[in-house]
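Minutes, project huddle
Topic: does the predicted pose make sense with zinc ion bound?
PN asked that the exact inputs be recorded in the minutes so nobody has to dig through chat later. Recorded below.
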Amino acid sequence: MKKPTTNRNPFKIYCDVFGHNYQVSKKVTSHVKEYTCKCCKKQLTTNSNGNLTELTPKYKEINMLLEDFHTRRMLRLKNKSFVSSIY
Ligand SMILES: [Zn+2]
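Predicted holo structure (tokens), as shared on screen:
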């Protein structure tokens, strides 16, 4: 038996009344994080001003680039300290 699907999301109403229940879903850099509401799955991210904004496809793209840049830099720093610990 399949449950009838409705367009109304009961969690959305809960969020409208009680506010969203955001949790960090992804750490992009030490300053930029992505948040997802546990109830309605709405996503937020930190923008360049340090404020929270809705995670649009554009911001997702920016965060992916940021993460890539951040990972490379961390990797380079790691290698550098590895080399310097040898010599
Ligand atoms: Zn919500």
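Observations noted during the meeting:
- The chain has a mean pLDDT of 87.
- The two ends are 69 Å apart (CA to CA).
No decisions taken; revisit at the next huddle.
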